[in-house]
Amino acid sequence: FPEKPDYCFLDEDSGLCRGYMTRYFYNNQSKKCEGFKYGGCLGNQNNFESLEQCKKTCEDSVFEHLSSQQTNKQASKQQTEVLPRCI
Question: How far apart are the first and last CA of the chain?
Fold first, then answer.
């Protein structure tokens, strides 16, 4: 199963510059992407221009959905292998 990139676990970091841009980071405490104000330089990789981009990259639901799809495929494959054939 795919795993979250390591930078999803980094803390929010607004950087050292004084810009005031809305960005999004993955909050590992709430397990959700949240907005923050980014200064415009430095900071870290847990910094996304859109909420959608953050969610796609870091939120658990994406990974849970992928792993449940995989589990469902395996379960249905096992089920069809076990069912007897009707003639």
Answer: 39
Give dist(CA 53, CA 33) in Å, integer.
9
Residue 13 resides in a domain: yes
Q: What is the CATH number of the domain that holds 69?
A: 4.10.410.10
Q: Is residue 83 part of a domain?
A: no
State pLDDT tens for residues 39-84.
999 999 999 999 999 999 999 766 655 555 555 555 544 544 555 5
Taking the C-alpha atoms of residue 29 and residue 22, their distance in angstroms, rounded to an integer, is: 20
Tell me the C-alpha distance between 41 and 16, whole Å: 6
Is 1:70 a contact under the CB 8 Å cutoff? yes
The alpha-helical segments, DSSP class H, found in the chain are 51-58, 60-82
